[in-house]
């Protein structure tokens, strides 16, 4: 069940998204590497709501590592840093070319993936305020959108972060493991993954 996940952060990263992703994936037993994409290499960063986030390493320190998934939290400031980071964009490109999972939430699908035209034909969602960045025929007004043909998962915002993280677990480890992680967290019973244990 061991998986290795990269979660980059930067100044302006959306805290709820980053922490929910990191926490939930660690509950799944994954090794989650939290790396600073800050151009100055700072490990202590201030998120979009002035909450301090601390990375474990610099992005450059793990740039040549292989990951089962690269997961981009949102927050406009953080997503803009990701967009402008040649190193991070190259990591995402390599992940894509290798057929491994990329996941992005909130502003990140629009400001990073679409900006660099990384998934020109993939179905995706993002925060509704960035919907105009995504081609109408590819836009999905869903809380979480999974494009299995492109190994891509996207989601809409802080309130969808738990569902997003659970879908990453489903992709990597299956529904049974995802349910074992989600059930003790008392997920919203109206969400689809509450049924995993019955399948």
Automatic annotation (TrEMBL):
CDD domains: GATase1_DJ-1
Keyword rRNA-binding: no
Domain of life: Bacteria
PANTHER family for the chain: PARKINSON DISEASE PROTEIN 7 HOMOLOG, PROTEIN/NUCLEIC ACID DEGLYCASE DJ-1-RELATED
Species annotation: Vibrio paucivorans
One GO CC term, this protein: cytoplasm
Protein name, entry field: DJ-1/PfpI family protein
InterPro entries assigned to the protein according to its UniProt record, in alphabetical order: Class_I_gatase-like, DJ-1, DJ-1/PfpI, Prot/Nucl_acid_deglycase
Coiled coil: none
UniProt keyword list: Repeat
UniProt domain DJ-1/PfpI: residue ranges: 3-169
